[in-house]
Specification:
372 residues; alpha/beta; Aspartate Aminotransferase, domain 2; Aspartate Aminotransferase, domain 1; 2 domains; eight-stranded mixed beta sheet; three-stranded antiparallel beta sheet; 11 helices; 39% helix; 13% strand; globular
Amino acid sequence: MSVETVDVIPAARPLIGVEERRAVDAVLASGHLTQGPEVAAFEREFSATLLDGRPVVAVNSGTAALHLGLIALGVGRGDEVLVPSFTFAATANAVRLVGATPVFVDVDPDSFCIAPTAMQRAVTARTRAIVPVHLYGHPADMTAIVAVAREHDLLVVEDAAQAHGARWVGRRVGTFGDTGAFSLYPTKNMTAAEGGMVATASPSSERVLRLLRNQGMAERYANEIVGFNARMSDLHAAIGRVQARKVRAWTAQRQANAAYLDGELRGVVTPIVHAEAEHVFHQYVVRVPDDRDGFVDALRDEYGIGAGVYYPTPVHRLPSFADAAVCGSDLHETERAAAEVIALPVYPTLTLRELDRIVAAVNALAAAGGSR
């Protein structure tokens, strides 16, 4: 197949339609562009749709959601925080930004989420919190994580940036921890063009989060604490409100696309979903043990199919952590995942014809031994 003769299937395809554009136009026409009624409405609707009513605070990014959540809980200098190394750097960045030390822990080979047994071994007298990442849309084992947290009196900050609506034992992610952080970046399962949400069960933490995002003010010029400008605008909230009405249907289609790929792909290791989990497939991740990078190149160059490689360099080996990488366990599974995983397209607007193209390309390359 010549790649010039077919339309390229991108690795991700943000979904912004007429309804979102109309919502933005309405805000522009109102003249109220900063944090206002749209943000407040979006917080209520996000909470009702994805968190079974747990309160949320809208902020300007998923990273800010993690960062402010840690500050609101009092995590800071002298504390250690257990985090996976197989994740986006923002997870560990937030820990460093509050002055705490990230302690990198290995992942479960099936879910790619933090491994509870490795986490248990990494706890020290200085450990203050755990940040489990619900990676690729698969929830971490929150039963075991919460048990370890209770045993050692630790805080739990869920990084649910990629897992809107995922469930563990029937309960939504973001409702287990002391806080839960969501991203609304364009490629996530729903977007506000940019932004984030912090979920919290504590009224006192919620108030602190609202102060932190707005320069420490609940009332104008009445600064109570030192804060940030981490506000979400009404423009972004308007987009998010439209997307919140669509995310359940989009998730069902992602799950259907994943099931189709599960049944048709050959020669690669398809995603393993734990029995207690509802996976929302932010990414559909397969393992290619031999010449992963050549496989990705061949998908793109020979078949016109985009595929993502997340995350080829574990966080503990990034230059930004070279002076402070603390490994709390052997990171064998982290290193193996970083060398093997590929995220294939799974977004809800894929057609059956596109899914069949993906299947044919992956199967042909796997049969041929990867790159050609």
